[in-house]
Structure formats: C-alpha cells, structure tokens
Design goal:
By secondary structure, the protein is of the alpha/beta class. It is built from ten helices and eleven strands. The strands form two sheets. Strands 1-11-10-2-3-4 form a six-stranded mixed sheet, covered by helices on one side. A five-stranded mixed sheet has the order 5-6-7-9-8, with no helix packed on it. Helix 1 packs parallel to helix 2. The protein is globular. The mean pLDDT is about 95.
Length: about 240
C-alpha cells in the first residue's frame, strides 16, 4: 500500500464528492481484474462516495493469458458503472494490425500470440503475407463485434479536477491540449526523467515499476501484472491518493 508523496507542494484535487479508481496495464490478467473489481465494490459499499468513476489506462490485451475474458469483464463493467477507458499502445497496435495484416509479426513480439490463443486461435511467428492476412480475417470473424468496437473507440486521455489520466505520459514543455497521441501512448524517458510540472498531475502506466510510484508531478501505477501477479489499484478522493 502506497500513499501520496506530494506533501511538499500543493496537492492536486478532485472535485468535491468525486472518487476515482484507476487501473492500468491489465494485459489479459482477467483473474486479477476480477479481484480488483471486488475491492472496488467492497470499498464503495462501505463508504458510498457521491460519484465514483473507474478509469482504465489502457493495455487491456496481449502478454497475459486471457485477453478475451478481460474485454468481456470491462465491457460488462461499463454497463453497470461509471467508466472511462483509455487507449494503450497495445490497443493502438492491435487495431493497426486489423487494418494492415503485414504488421502481424511485430504484434507477435508484443504478446499478440497470447491474445490469439485467448480467442482459440493458434499461429506460428513466421507466417507468410498471405497467411498473415488469413489469420487476421479469422481473428476478426472470431472476435465478438463488441470487442472490436470497444478497442476502436478508446479515448487518449481523461481529465478530472487537477488530474490528467493517460496511458504512457506526456512530452514535457508541450501543453496538455497539444500532446501528440504517439507520445501519449509510447513516451518513456523524456517524461519519466522530468521533474517539471505538466499543468496537471499525471496518472499513467506503460512502464512497469516494482510498486506504484506516487511522485510530486506524476503517479505510475503499472506494476507489471502479467509478470508479477500484482495489479495496482489507485484510489483518489479530494487531495488523497492511495495505491493498493
């Protein structure tokens, strides 16, 4: 459990009555997602916030064992709760594969084989161009249409109060309203090494850390769930942040 370390400066604030639960980089770990849903449900039943928003920071698929069930859980959750789904680099790459099957080989290097297997499809990494096209056609015919629609409709960012939610981070020195999607989904070193303020407090994932980092200018909540078995939940209310 990690609490905020921003006590040496004005703390970012959410609007009164709003509580946010944030999760990132689930990567097909549906069993861990179910556990976090149970934690959220218990917390809400106990404290009954005026308005709760569940914010998911992308990378729902690839690498882990059950991307298909993960998407089922998220879509079902969206029907019952106030949810926001952001795009991760893995979703961006996946949808690019659907549009251009020649990128399938690179997708396999990112954990795409595990996603295929979750839909009951097997493949070898060394496919010809024709085989790649056949594979993508098989995948699109096997995937529930709501899964494809979900992955294509993800948004790049979400702002609430003094908080800015994004998958990877932002480019320092560029206003938040002018950030490029490439940076929002992929940036690492320039963002992670910056001590600057970004206009709002940035909550992100994308770069795995041993435990959640709640720093002066940003919070990283990607704890490498598919490799570590640790999916971190960040709860925010008022100016208080708690990572579980």
């Amino acid at each position: 459990m990690v609490t905020t370390s921003t006590q040496n400066s004005p703390r970012p604030m959410l609007p009164n009555g709003v509580r946010i639960y944030a999760l990132s980089d689930i990567h097909g770990c549906a069993h861990l997602l179910e556990q976090m849903f149970a934690v959220i449900d218990a917390d809400m039943a106990n404290s009954r916030p005026y308005r709760a928003i569940e914010v998911f920071l992308g990378d729902y698929i690839d690498r882990g064992p059950d991307s298909r069930h993960t998407l089922d859980l998220l879509i079902d959750r969206s029907r019952r709760r106030n949810t926001v789904f952001l795009k991760g680099n893995h979703e961006a790459y996946f949808t690019s594969v659907l549009d251009d099957p020649s990128r399938t080989g690179d997708w396999f290097q990112f954990g795409g084989l595990q996603t295929l297997m979750s839909y009951g499809i097997s493949a070898t990494p060394d496919l010809s161009k024709d085989e790649q096209s056949d594979l993508v056609r098989e995948l699109t015919s096997t995937m529930p249409p709501q899964h494809i629609a979900f992955l294509r409709q993800l948004r790049p960012t979400f702002t609430c109060g003094d908080f800015f939610f994004v998958h990877a981070g932002v480019r320092p020195g560029i206003p938040l309203s002018e950030q490029r999607e490439q940076d929002l989904l992929w940036i690492r070193d320039e963002f992670l090494q910056s001590k600057k303020r970004f206009g709002k407090y940035v909550v992100h994932g994308h770069t795995p850390v041993r435990q959640a980092e709640l720093l002066e200018n940003r919070a990283n909540i990607d704890t490498g769930a598919y490799a570590t078995g640790n999916l971190t939940l960040l709860s925010i209310q008022g100016n208080s942040m708690l990572a579980i």
